[in-house]
Amino acid sequence: MDIKRIAKATTQTLISYLTYQAVRVVIEQLKETDPPRSLWLHQFSTQERIQDGEGYLRDLMGSHKELALRIMTVRAHLAEEISEFLPEMLTTEIQAANAQHRRHYLERLTQLPLTGDPPDP
Amino acid sequence: MDIKRIAKATTQTLISYLTYQAVRVVIEQLKETDPPRSLWLHQFSTQERIQDGEGYLRDLMGSHKELALRIMTVRAHLAEEISEFLPEMLTTEIQAANAQHRRHYLERLTQLPLTGDPPDP
Q1: Which residues of chain A from 52 to 81 reach within 8 Å of chain B, CB to CB?
Q2: Do the domain assignments include residue B10?
């Protein structure tokens, strides 16, 4: 397995996801300070558009530079804030999820009706 | 902005993505060793199904326990291998992408036709 390729692809997925989260943060902030602009950004940020984080920012940079710059600042901030915790959260949560799948499986096994004759007393 | 909630949501997204990557790794490995099973796993792993990584593994655990366990092992391995590099890759790549958006914007600005009269010689 090509760890380097997977690490790169994972980073890109992560950046797109943090861009989406940054957009949500800015829409929420604008709800307080500038509701019409919040609505505009909400309507601009369709699901199809935002799935390609960099394409979305390029478009937004053309339509509304200040908002694009603000989202870029917020996503960089989010990355700095969470990247410290990510490695541990990731490995811990995966181990927990894996253990839960194994436990569910064992529980299901023990709930199955026993086949064959009961053992002699 | 609620950093803790965003960190949790990001971790879940990351786990789902690594599950998808682990499925791809196992499908590729099986192509060499057990082509019919590779095909079966490929057909089982539809896009809708795999978007919910944990639901996907629960289903697979019911249909084909060994494959589910193998994918769980691979995703844990991937997490361990890449989590060390993720924080730096993430912040570096976001800074690079942000810088590129700013640069594109400035380039576009300087390519716009000048308005107004040319300055006097």
Answers
A1: 54, 57-58, 61-62, 65, 68-69, 72, 74-76, 78-81
A2: yes
Nearest chain B CA: its distance from A86 CA (Å)? 7
- Rounded (5°) CA angle B27-B31-B37: 70
| d(C-alpha B89, C-alpha B86), whole Å | 5
CATH of the domain at A20: 1.10.1200.210
**Predicted ipTM of the assembly:** 0.85
Report percent pLDDT > 70 for chain A: 92
Q: Which pLDDT score is estimated for A34?
A: 97
DSSP secondary structure, chain A, as one string = --HHHHHHHHHHHHHHHHHHHHHHHHHHHHHHH-HHHHHHHHHH--HHHHHSHHHHHHHHHHH-HHHHHHHHHHHHHHHHHHHTTHHHHHHHHHHHHHHHHHHHHHHHHHHSPP-SPPPP-
Tell me the residue range of the domain where A22 lies. Answer: 3-83
Residue pLDDT, tens place only, A44-78: 998 888 989 999 999 999 999 999 999 999 999 99
Contact: A11, B90; criterion CB under 8 Å: yes
B41 touches chain A (CB under 8 A): no
> B61 pLDDT band (50/70/90 cuts)?
very high
